[in-house]
Amino acid sequence: MNTAVNFTDAAKTALKNPTLRFNFRQAMDSLRERRAAQFPDQDELERARDLAGAIRRRSLNHLAEKLVQLESQCQKNGIQVHWAETPAQANEIILEVCQRHDAKHVIKGKSMVSEECHLNDYLAKHDIEALESDLGEYIVQIDGETPSHIIMPAIHKNKKEIAELFAEKIPGVEYTEDVDTLTAIARKVLRSKFETAAVGISGVNFAVAETGTLCLVENEGNGRMTTTVPPVHIAITGIEKVVPSLSDVAPLYSVLTRSATGQHATTYFNMISSPRREGERDGPQEVHLVLLDNGRSKIYQDERMQDTLKCIRCGACMNHCPVYTRIGGHAYGTVYPGPIGQILNPQQYGIDQQGEMLSACSLNGACGEACPVRIPIPSLISELRHEATRNDQAGTVYGQGALRKLHEAVVWGSWKWIHRTPWAYKAMGLAATRLRRLVPSAAMGPWTKTRVKPALAEKTLHELMKERES
Amino acid sequence: MSARDRILSRLQHDVIASDNEIDLSVHLDKQFDTQEKLERFTEKLESVHGEIIRCSENDWTQTLARVVDAEQIENLTLGLGALPDQAADAVSCAVRRYDADIEDWKGQLFSDVQAGFTTCRGGIAETGSLLLWPSIDEPRLLSLVPPIHIALLFAKDIANTFTEVLCTQNWQDGMPTNALMISGPSKSADIAQVLAYGVHGPKRLIVLLAE
Fold first, then answer.
1. Could A194 and B180 be called an inter-chain contact, meaning their C-beta atoms sit closer than 8 Å?
2. C-alpha dihedral, B109 to B113 to B119 to B122, nearest 10°
3. In terms of CB atoms within 10 Å, which end of chain A has fewer, N or C?
């Protein structure tokens, strides 16, 4: 579970914070421009999306079989595979490995799945310090925050805020806004941690069933450090990240980096297939893979919703979302913010718990157009809105019907009846035009709180068309 | 029933949807001639702060020696094998071989080593990337921990695309412990989207491109 945050209140608070809005606006504008620059040829973009979408679709079509193959290939390579249905189980598995190696502190590469598990807090409760090594994750961690973007965790902070944070939290550091100096400070702190950590914990971008290979995409080198220097490496990932064959990773990697940060390639693409082999000089002696379900198999069972699992976590949907751009990631109060979060969180945790954010969408379609694997996010949001208000108990999503309101149901029931009853339809048209001045502002709901009441026309469209014909 | 079996049972379905055709042509159609490959590789790698020094297959050792002098590199760590041997013989700075387990000299590697030299398995023209298969002779951290990474790449080993490499070189028949694609020095834009280099890995990547 995520921390309970009232989405509407959090969104309102975020909208009132000009610094936050400026930071997000600037960052999202630049990320969108950079992505666009990577796809100068529209035809190539569409073909690359077709291909990536087809690869993810095929992976899901054979998910169970490919997971079993991944497991057996990994085991053959010497990687120990663990299965977890819930974050609690995943945490226990990881804790057990850490304790077996007497780990007092562990170093982490970026992993959104570990955020799902609130792994750092769990390990802390058992006296194990888990330090984030991705620069953005490190920044939010030392400030006691969570990531506000899945690719750029500290995007909500500007230089000044980070300069203040470093000066306050890192002993012996003086205030500086120089980014190279700030980066060098973090490098120094984290290098000593890499050297001494007993366990490294990372995420996985793609897990290749054919070869039992774990692929990690990154720019900083912290992912490589985490997976190479400590004697034990634990990788944690969602069960949907498996792809059938090695040749599948190149097209996915290509659309991932271009869509996420507008890079033609990231600095490192790291493919790990086994622990240290006989004679090798470095690398972990033990590699573990934790496969987490946490609601994914439930999503899988509903064919309408399965596309949710195609996601490769590039974040392009949030970069292109007008709502996310204005309120930022923290307002969602969840691990995954933005459009992908809007379809994932309600399904993982139930509409009753995380359904409120479904209303934060104008169905403008920008996320669906940006998605490199063609997830129809707007249709899925519509579908979930239907799940949220249905009262027939015939849906599959947890907490279905939780957002149903009587007055809304009455309004839409009447709407439906009016549109199927000619005389009522005519009467409503006449009333709306002839009595237009009498419509109270309050009847328009929140719309008129910050806007002028829209003026209704004097005549109905039918009347206007008839006049034109005569 | 174990967690594994419960998860797998929930993923069973009666009808397996038919697979769409996987059409790789959008990547595989990208074919560059020798000259284009070199130009594209150079342009892309330089655009991400990689440094390329072109040399010939016969005199790359002299070029390496010049780079080491020009950059005032005082110590260089190399792996084992014929090419690292040639490199070690050519340079005038102190030379250390990565010939011990990391546990025996971790502190030294992290604090004292200024530059690391590695060979490459190949390169990729489309993205200006190096392909490395670290090995017993050239371990994984050699291209990561030293602040400067000097890589030797033979121009003839540059392929068009990563997709082409994975479709034609049969990596799946025997993956190494670790395979890497490296495109530039370590970097981050996590502070206010300002690019900074040398976050955790090397601050500089110098590629000796031997033709």
1. no
2. 80
3. C
Inter-chain residue contact A154 with B191, CB threshold 8 Å = yes
Does residue B178 fall inside a structural domain? yes
Q: Which of A247, A302, A310, A396 to probe the B interface (max B CBs under 10 A)?
A: A247
* A154 reaches B (C-beta below 8 A): yes
Q: Residue B205 forms beta bridges with which residues?
A: B149
Tokens of B196: 């900074």
Residue-level pLDDT at A444:
75
Note whether B28 contacts A: Cβ–Cβ < 8 A.
Answer: no
Same domain? For A129 and A272 the reply is: yes
Q: Hunting for tokens 């990697």 — which residue is that?
A: A253
Residue-level pLDDT at A1: 40
Tally of domains in chain B: 1
What sign does the dihedral A35-A40-A45-A46 (CA atoms) show? Answer: positive
pLDDT digit string, tens, across residues A195-219: 999 999 999 999 999 999 999 999 9
Q: For residue range A150-182, list pLDDT tens digits in order.
A: 999 999 999 999 999 999 999 999 999 999 999
In residues, how long is chain A?
A: 470
Residue A5: what pLDDT?
A: 62
Interface contact A48, partner B, CB < 8 A: yes
- Domain holding B156: CATH number? 3.40.50.10420
C-alpha A460/C-alpha A426 separation (Å) is: 9
How many other CB atoms are there within 10 angstroms of residue B110's CB atom? Answer: 17
Q: What pLDDT does A2 receive?
A: 43
Instruction: Report whether pLDDT(A388) > 50.
Output: yes
Range of the structural domain that residue B96 is part of:
32-186+194-210
